[in-house]
Design a protein that fits this description.
The protein is an alpha/beta fold. It has two domains: about 5-50 and about 300-404, Aspartate Aminotransferase, domain 1 (Alpha-Beta Complex), CATH 3.90.1150.10; about 65-295, Aspartate Aminotransferase, domain 2 (3-Layer(aba) Sandwich), CATH 3.40.640. Helices cover about 45% and strands about 15% of the residues. The chain is built from 14 helices and 14 strands. The protein has helices at about 10-15, 20-30, 50-60, 65-70, 80-90, 105-120, 135-140, 160-170, 195-210, 265-275, 280-295, 295-320, 350-360, 385-404; strands spanning about 35-40, 100-105, 125-130, 145-155, 155, 175-180, 210-215, 240-245, 255-260, 330, 335-340, 360, 365, 375-380. The strands form three sheets. The protein has an eight-stranded mixed sheet with strand order 2-9-8-7-6-3-4-5, sandwiched between helices. A four-stranded antiparallel sheet has the order 10-11-14-13. The longest helix has 27 residues, at about 295-320. The chain is globular and about 60 Å long.
Length: about 400
């Protein structure tokens, strides 16, 4: 039997991505009894999980609560959780009707998938940052949009570069359908979009009549100033869709995210969600609602800021000592990632498996561009222990010095 003959065109297009490749290689090394230090995905510090608080919410649940939790729920999410999130977002300048303008998602990744299914047809122009979140690109890919890029710097997406990209699209007789943007501690660069640029980008969306998908998984993890107002807080027309997640501030395992959009969009997206996931897990939703209600979410964010800031500092200090002087990197003011630029002759994509064989993994920067760029890498400091950060950076620094 030839299994390839049975795939659909979409099914045949799926190939293992870089993260899957790294995970499989790491599992094989572990099977051989070898240690692998992962500086890859944006995972949580496992020692800091709020397990006591989550356990307490479920132990305090009444018999009636459990009867509700073990039943089917609304595709849009349980009402108490939607109300708690809407009330919480008010503190960040976002006003949303908990009945019609918000939907609970299986993490914010599901939001990216649903937005792609509802709004992207083959050939539709979608602008992303250069670089941008790799799993956004993979979520959009099945819809076959025409992906264009706009340059980023330390202050986030450059509005002038964005408008230049828009004008290029218009000159081709096309229109921009949607802008995907991560304004606060952008993945992978950890850049922070200034308030002035947020206002200018909002103005461009109105001027050229396109939608914005604002992704904010990391904005609450800030080490210095408070998080700036999201672009959604500037939206008076309903053209911004906003998504965020529990994964980076409380627990990735609870699989809670949310999407805020105008009510007409939510109706469409709820129907799309219902064809794959009838409703999210109600036990997690119940616990999440209680964590918001009791103030545990805000307390956990304060805790995580301290944990991640210390780990960031250790990674920066170790890189100063062991990385080659030709490498350049940022000092993130929040979020989970550190972005490294290497000399052009160093191909971080080709170097990856050699690094894995020596016991350390990272994500090559090529995964975050739709264009051909290979001299960058993204490092994560939130998940590994401090000892592993030091050891992993030493290994990586030695390897890079051999190639620079």
């Amino acid at each position: 039997m030839n299994p390839d003959k049975y795939y659909s065109e979409l099914g045949a297009s799926y190939e293992p991505g870089v993260l899957t490749t790294v995970v499989l290689a790491a599992e094989e090394l572990k099977r051989q009894g070898k240690k692998i230090i992962g500086l890859t995905g944006g995972m949580y510090d496992v020692e800091s999980f709020p397990w006591r608080e989550v356990k307490s919410t479920l132990m305090d649940a009444s018999e009636e609560d459990w009867k509700v939790m073990l039943q089917y729920g609304s595709t849009r999410g349980i009402q108490p959780l939607r109300e708690e999130i809407c009330e919480w977002m008010k503190g960040h300048g976002i006003e949303a009707d908990p009945y019609t303008e918000i939907m609970i998602m299986t993490g914010s990744q599901e939001a990216l998938d649903i937005v792609a299914r509802i709004f992207m047809d083959p050939g539709d122009v979608v602008i992303v940052g250069a670089p941008t979140y790799l799993s956004a690109l993979t979520a959009f890919e099945p819809s076959k949009p025409d992906i264009r890029e706009a340059k980023l710097d330390k202050d986030g997406m450059d509005p002038e570069a964005l408008e230049e990209t828009i004008k290029q699209v218009l000159a081709e007789g096309k229109e921009v359908k949607l802008l995907y943007i991560i304004p606060t501690f952008q993945n992978p660069m950890s850049s922070m979009l200034t308030m002035e640029r947020r206002e200018r980008i909002m103005a461009l969306a109105k001027k050229y009549d396109f939608l914005i998908l604002e992704d904010n998984p990391y904005g609450y993890i800030t080490f210095e100033d408070e998080m700036p107002k999201p672009i959604k807080a500037l939206d008076d027309e309903g053209r911004v869709m906003y998504t965020s997640t529990f994964s980076k501030i409380v627990s990735p395992g609870m699989r809670i995210g949310w999407l805020v959009a105008r009510k007409e969009f939510i109706v469409k997206m709820a129907e799309a969600k219902g064809s794959t996931i009838i409703s999210n897990d109600l036990v997690s939703q119940y616990a999440a609602a209680k964590l918001f209600e009791r103030g545990d979410v805000d307390r956990q964010i304060v805790k995580m800021k301290k944990v991640y800031r210390k780990k960031r500092d250790v990674m920066l200090e170790t890189m100063d000592t062991y990385f080659p002087k030709e490498a350049k990197w940022n000092a993130p003011k929040g979020g989970l990632f550190l972005w490294v630029e290497l000399p052009e002759k160093v191909n971080a994509t080709e170097l990856l498996m050699e690094a894995v064989s020596r016991g350390v993994a990272y994500l090559p920067g090529s995964s975050f561009f739709s264009s051909d760029v290979h001299n960058h890498m993204r490092l994560n400091y939130s998940h590994p222990s401090i000892d592993d950060i030091v050891e992993g950076i030493k290994i990586l620094g030695t390897l890079l010095k051999e190639r620079v």
